[in-house]
Structure formats: C-alpha cells, structure tokens
C-alpha cells in the first residue's frame, strides 16, 4: 500500500468514497478491490454513524443501511486489515468525532496504524479543535486531513499552512447557485491555500459537479473526491453494483487523463 505523499507524485488523484457495510462488508470489500484495480489513487472509507449531520440524503441512507446490517467500527478495521496487503491505494477513513471518542481516541488511532489507514477525516471537527486528535494522529502515523470550504474566508491560509496529507475542499451551499460561480470560488480557495502552503495537495469534493465542471476543477486542483454516484449505484443495485462501479471509475479516469 502506498502512502499519501507518494500518491500525489503520479498526477491527478481520484478518491472514491465508500460507506463501509452498504449493503454489506463483503460487497464493500469487492468494491474496494474493484476501484483499486480500476485506478483509484486513494480510497476513502466511511465508517457509518447514526447522525451524519450535513451529509446528503444518499449518504445518510447508506449509513442507515450499514448500521441496520450490523456494521461496527471493529468490523471495518478488520476488513481493512485483511485487504491492506493486496490494495495499492492508501486508505483514508471518514467518520465523526463521536465514533472516535466512543471507540477511544488512542485505541482508534492505534487500530488505524495496525490496519493500514493512512489518513483520518472528521468533518464535524472544526480546524480550531484539531489538537484534540492531532498529537495522537502523529504518534500513530495517521495524517489528519483538514477541510476547506469556499466559505472559510480568512481562515484559509492558516488551515492550509498547518495541513497534513492533503486538503479536502468543498463548495459551501451558497456557492452552488451558478455553475460558473462554483468553479470560480473553488479556484480562488485553492489558489489562496497554495499561496500559503505550495506543497500541500488540494482535492475537491466533486459530488454534484457536472463532467465539464470536473474537468475545469482539475485544471487547478490536485484531485477529486467522488462518492454520490457510487452510493447511488449501491443503493439501486446492491451486490450487482460492482461492475457498473468499475465502468464508472474507468470512464472518470479517462476524463482525468
């Protein structure tokens, strides 16, 4: 398994997001293998949470199905541990602070180290509170991924200057009224971040963006995160979604060059 820094040396990066356990962990493992073989550069594993605030409905439903099916944090770690020797793309976990606290922060990060998890993204933890996790992340070699929004304003340079792994950029809800507005605001955000920290890669959450917008985003960003189309396929097709996901990721990689 590669590390995050190595990944960004090979060109534009594609990061598929997968909710672990939707529809079950066996299918999740098949999807992980499929996207890895089809060209995923980093794989973002979502540990389901009962109250995923701010998530789109498709992701909320995926979490609900996974939890109903009995997925636990331990089961996700066990799956990752079994897969780490055959997967090239580094794993990054996305979950919520209460999941980590409930498991025990040090225990959680120790398991990340043991199971090949290279990064951690906690969307409900403000940048100003990252020190609740950062020391233990460093202790166990897990990069704490910071989020940037087009509404981050004057905080962008500070967030970028202290970022690890890569920056995860999103368009704030008020930036989605105009397609041109989305890309221009994302570009301004990335440029400001790069001015503050030229070495930090910046990936953009491309969910909801049209293909033309994704191509435009890739002119200034280092990669994209894509989840909603995969979650939609899994919701509609269940275990039969693996081949359509393979085809989708293959097409996206072609667009990315």
TrEMBL record:
One of its GO terms (molecular function) is tryptophan synthase activity. The active site is at residues 44, 55. Its EC number is 4.2.1.20. InterPro entries: Aldolase_TIM, RibuloseP-bd_barrel, Trp_synthase_suA. It catalyses: (1S,2R)-1-C-(indol-3-yl)glycerol 3-phosphate + L-serine = D-glyceraldehyde 3-phosphate + L-tryptophan + H2O. Pfam families: Trp_syntA. GO terms for cellular component: cytosol. Keywords: Amino-acid biosynthesis, Aromatic amino acid biosynthesis, Lyase, Tryptophan biosynthesis. Pathway: Amino-acid biosynthesis; L-tryptophan biosynthesis; L-tryptophan from chorismate: step 5/5. The keyword Nucleotide-binding does not apply. Belongs to the TrpA family. Tetramer of two alpha and two beta chains. The alpha subunit is responsible for the aldol cleavage of indoleglycerol phosphate to indole and glyceraldehyde 3-phosphate. This is Tryptophan synthase alpha chain. It comes from Parasutterella muris. The gene is trpA.
């Amino acid at each position: 398994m590669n590390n995050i820094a190595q990944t960004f040396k090979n060109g534009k990066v594609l990061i598929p997001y997968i909710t672990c356990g939707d529809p079950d962990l066996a299918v999740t493992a098949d999807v992980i293998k499929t996207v890895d073989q089809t060209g995923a550069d980093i794989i973002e594993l979502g540990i389901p949470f009962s109250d995923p605030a701010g998530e789109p409905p498709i992701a909320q439903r995926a979490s609900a199905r996974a939890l109903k099916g009995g997925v636990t944090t331990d089961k996700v770690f066990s799956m990752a541990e079994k897969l780490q020797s055959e997967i090239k793309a580094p794993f990054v976990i996305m979950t919520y602070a209460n999941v980590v606290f409930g498991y025990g922060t040090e225990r959680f990060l120790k398991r990340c180290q043991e199971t090949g998890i290279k990064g951690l993204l906690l969307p409900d933890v403000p940048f100003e509170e990252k020190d609740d996790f950062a020391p233990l992340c460093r202790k166990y070699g897990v990069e704490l991924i910071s989020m940037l929004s087009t509404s981050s304003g004057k905080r962008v340079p500070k967030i970028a200057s202290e970022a690890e792994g890569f920056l995860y950029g999103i368009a704030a809800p008020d930036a989605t009224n105009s397609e041109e507005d989305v890309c221009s605001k994302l570009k301004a955000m990335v440029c400001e971040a790069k001015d503050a920290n030229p070495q930090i890669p910046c990936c953009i959450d491309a969910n909801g963006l049209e293909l033309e917008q994704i191509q435009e985003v890739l002119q200034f960003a280092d990669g994209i995160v894509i989840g909603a189309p995969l979650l939609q396929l899994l919701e509609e097709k269940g275990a039969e979604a693996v081949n359509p996901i393979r085809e989708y990721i293959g097409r996206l990689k072609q667009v990315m060059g």
